[in-house]
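Annex B, item 7. Sequence and structure tokens for protein A, then protein B.
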Amino acid sequence: MSMWMQLAKSIAVLILVAVVIAPGQAAAQATKVGFVNVGRLLSESPQAKISMELLQEEFAPRQREIVAQQNEFQENQEQVQRDLEVMGPEERRNAERDLRKAEREIARGQEEITEDFNLRRNDELGKLQRDLMREVQSFAEKSGYDLIVSEGVLYASQAVDITQQILTGLGTNFQKSPAP
């Protein structure tokens, strides 16, 4: 989200410039300002929901494989616990070594899945943020807004909050676009 933080800082500077310049121009023209809750767009837009569903589907087989490995490990561990009393010292060491090895492999597999998922999620999030930004800019131009602000806003009344209108536009554009 660092891109959004930079954008918020840039917007804050623009607001300051607008506050300094606007009084001289206020008599000539009113400035139209809107606020967009980007977090809400990222969580409620149909594009975001579909992206997350597709990511879940993409990683489900690998996650099921890890769960199966964990179940097998649990069964093996229980079997070793039951057989400890009848095992010789060398057999016990080998069984414990095999369990530790399996446990490390499962942990490594889970870390790989998590890392791969995070990379893919970040890719999808970047695409989604670009799409959201285009939608906000398009809406602002069509609706005659002079300034749209987002993160870093301490208060925004419902009168300037255009988040729902952007969500509606995202939904309409999503229905028009071909399925992924």
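Protein B:
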Amino acid sequence: MYFKKGFVTCGHCGDQVDLWQAALDRATRLSATGAGALVSLGAAQTTFVIPLETGKYYTVELTNYGVPADARILRRIYTGQGGDVTAMEWHGNAPPLRFPGTVLRLVGVPLGEGPLPRVDRVAINIVWVRHEDSDEWSYLVTAFESAAAGDYAPSLVFAQSAVEISMMPLIEEKLRRHASTEHVRNFMRDSLTFGHAVNIILPYLCVEAGLTRMPDVVRGALNKMRKKRNDIIHEGAKATAITAEDAMEGLCAAAFGFEYMRFVRPILERA
């Protein structure tokens, strides 16, 4: 709807909402929360409440609460609801850097003084990203994961790669219909940059097929991210100051660019 009309209709008040600006504003406002900001850009959030008893060990299977078995977990938050009990994660002597699988291993622990054991409710908040069997999606997931960890430079590199990988094979396929495989391969390798693809080739293909062009604000943000990415690659992450706001804008551009390609690809392939 956004790519067709330039807005979406609010389901509560009926207003026409600029989806790009709404997503970007919320992600930027929540950028200090890490994974929480990513919910605006396509990550999912699941919250549920369970009773825990102090001193007891629990395994909680997240698939029972709507999280897919192959989801990538970005964040877990445990909040005691009554002020008496909360949860701590139980792990071996080598805790994994990335959360593996979808099973929480928890121990109920007391909050404050008082008789033991005791039982209280604990809210569990999970931010996760869906799995998808495509090369470009795996790059976007890695970008989200890096941003959730506050590692913003590689986040932008992977985010830009996700859009590039979703776009370049389609352009190559279209060109091969009118030029030799060797000439197209050489052109793609030696001459066609990401900037040329997103600013010239893709708009031309979309207009010729009767599709709306990628919104200028999204395209502009992709160009800005490309420049940041080039600075990181050529000057190094330490020499390039990437703020949380930069990362959120880049991820927003990547998420919208990725979804735009999913919107236009089937039509362009048939055109």
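Comment on protein B: The beta strands are 8-9, 16-17, 44-53, 57-61, 72-80, 85-89, 103-110, 119-129.
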